[in-house]
Amino acid sequence: MGQGMVRNLMKAGYRVNVYNRTKSKADALIEDGAVWMPTIQDISKNSDVIITIVGYPKDVEQVYLEDGIVAHAKQGSTLIDMTTSSPKLAERIYEEAKANGLSSLDAPVSGGDVGAQNGKLSIMVGGDKNVFETVRPIFEAMGQNIVYQGQAGSGQHTKLSNQIAIAGTMLGVCEAIAYAAKAGLDPDQVLKSIAAGAAGSFSLSNLAPRMLKGDFAPGFYVKHFIKDMRIALESAEELGLLTPGLALAKKRYEELAEQGGENFGTQALYKLYL
Amino acid sequence: MGQGMVRNLMKAGYRVNVYNRTKSKADALIEDGAVWMPTIQDISKNSDVIITIVGYPKDVEQVYLEDGIVAHAKQGSTLIDMTTSSPKLAERIYEEAKANGLSSLDAPVSGGDVGAQNGKLSIMVGGDKNVFETVRPIFEAMGQNIVYQGQAGSGQHTKLSNQIAIAGTMLGVCEAIAYAAKAGLDPDQVLKSIAAGAAGSFSLSNLAPRMLKGDFAPGFYVKHFIKDMRIALESAEELGLLTPGLALAKKRYEELAEQGGENFGTQALYKLYL
Fold first, then answer.
1. Which CATH class is domain A157-273?
2. Are the CB atoms for A9 and A138 separated by under 8 Å?
3. How far apart, in whole angstroms, are the C-alpha atoms of residue B123 and residue B109?
4. Rounded mean pLDDT, A22-45
5. Residues of A in contact with B247 (CB under 8 A)
6. Given CA atoms B189, B195, B197, B199 in this order, what sign does their dihedral have?
7. What would the pLDDT profile of A55-113 be if each residue is shown by its tens digit?
């Protein structure tokens, strides 16, 4: 996703430094004018706004807190983590950044590769509102539905709410389509009856047709969705909230991953019902 | 729902006989020109097309098979059950109707009271295709999205697929909104971030705002949704399909009913998370 986001920032006129563990992945961007920085420390020292989108919370923790961005960024810099990650970690980075004279926002996204490429990401932002307003043009270069959600961690909480809604919906969509197929109906015809009404959802309209074609390519990886659901479930437990639908969806996706499905798209949950 | 449907049939020019256990509920229709029939036997003998929408499969069985419509309808009549009911029962009525020289369709609907009133029901039809084509104008008087789904029982199977999709989606929507509230976010603001993207659904857009206002009025009754999920789960089991998401949703709604929530709308599932 980072590639599309960098490209949209350059298109909007920003000078962009780039760093990635695997330099070759940045080659095309460098050819187009992005400036390669060989280490996290270098990119931290030489940038006014530092934007990250990495894999797991442990990666976020590493690049920010282990001799990383927070230690090396210039006074007054703004740090923006767009990874889907732990709200608690976002709060911790916010505090440590503040102690070092830096600003920090958590700003996870939805909309996937396609949204990143065409600048149509939905961006959910937590942190200080004045900082959000200052860097808003940067978000506007990458996204369309940009909503300030509150104090540090609120962007992550919003994204987790998003993933919790998807988790339950995917159970419903897979079971509805599997039921239709098992009952001997033509599931494409069933979609004509049900997709536009009270059962309708983004997943039913966009992912069910892929399930029915046997197209399980990602899209959004099963392994990343499991990561998100794990963070959401931990966070819900910390808040004292029981989420049995989320727990079930996570368990089912883990079954799928154990059967070798972790690199499929999330619509591959349907395979458990075949 | 029957009232809105009868009114739309009369508006389309059909002469409509009506029967209901509680005559007073039909009074307004009778004033507007519907003809009251005092018994099921009377309405069966005196109508060319007999349309039913009742409560539970046992009610369907009673009005059709226990000295009811199948025994008393005129040769050549068409029977249309629009109740959400058991696919197996629809097949049985189809067979018994056929043996008596009658035609039968199962044609459950979605769209609720409002859809019934404004003639915008989605109608899912099972039975013989030529019979469907013959009575299609009758469906067109009541609905907008009218889809023939296949042999007897297919309309019911399609409606159950619809309810299965809703069941999972409602788990996701309730847990997502409960999580947002518990995390201290403004859930209405969260909806701005998530309702239009990959987490989007009819339920998230239409029912989550009611949950947040504490508006638990039906809409679609909890007790009726439990009935539908029970039929769906039994039917899935008969087909050898495991539907753990549906099973969980049914269990949660039964908890809600045990707590006195059976006459609320389905959005009241949210109360379990408060």
1. mainly alpha
2. yes
3. 5
4. 97
5. none
6. positive
7. 999 999 999 999 999 999 999 999 999 999 999 999 999 999 999 999 999 999 999 88
Residue A159 catalytic?
Answer: yes
CB pair distance less than 8 Å for A240 and B169: no
CA distance B242 to B248: 12
Q: Give the model's pLDDT for residue B117.
A: 92
A212 vs A188: CA distance, rounded Å? 8
What's the CA gap between B201 and B199, in Å, rounded?
A: 7
* Minimal CA separation from A29 to chain B, in Å: 28
ipTM attached to this prediction: 0.97
* CA nearest to B78, candidates B135, B15, B155: B135
- Exactly one of B129, B159, B213, B227 is catalytic; which is it? B159
Q: Which residue of A has its CA nearest to B274?
A: A241
Q: How many CB atoms lie within 10 A of CB A262?
A: 17
The Cα B23–Cα B36 span in angstroms is 8
* Closest partner CB to A183 (pick from B174, B199, B239): B239
| Residue listed under structure tokens 């004018």 | A33
Cα(A63)–Cα(B253) distance, rounded to whole angstroms?
45
B33 DSSP β-pair partners = none
Contact flag A158-B111 (C-beta cutoff 8 Å): no
Tokens of residue B66, six digits: 């226990």
Q: Domain spans of chain B?
A: 2-151, 157-273
- The phi-psi region of residue A119 (left if phi > 0; otherwise alpha if psi is between -120 and 50; otherwise beta) is left
> What residue type is A12 in one-letter code?
A
pLDDT band at B266 (very low <50, low <70, confident <90, very high): very high
**Which of B114, B123, B162 is the best residue to mutate to test the A interface, defined by the most A CB atoms within 10 Å of its own CB?**
B162
Give the DSSP per-residue string, A130-182: HHHHHHHHHHHHHEEEEEEEESTTHHHHHHHHHHHHHHHHHHHHHHHHHHHHH
Shortest alpha-carbon distance between residue A48 and chain B (Å): 27
- Encoding tokens for residue B209? 């705002």
Cβ distance of B149 and A193 shorter than 8 Å: yes
Q: In whole angstroms, give the CA distance from residue B182 to residue A242.
A: 11
Q: Which CATH number fits domain A2-151: 3.90.79.10, 1.10.10.10, 3.40.50.1860, 3.40.50.720?
A: 3.40.50.720
Q: Choose among A108, A50, A116: nearest CA to A77.
A: A50
Whether the per-residue pLDDT at B112 is higher than 90: the answer is no
What values do phi and psi take at A225, rounded to 5? -65, -40
pLDDT score of B10: 98
Residue B15: what residue type? R
pLDDT above 90 covers a percentage of chain B that reads: 97
Considering only CB atoms, A172 lies closest to which of B166, B176, B239, namely B166
Q: Looking at residue B114, what is its pLDDT? A: 86
Q: Which residues pair with B148 in a beta bridge?
A: B125
pLDDT of residue A185: 98
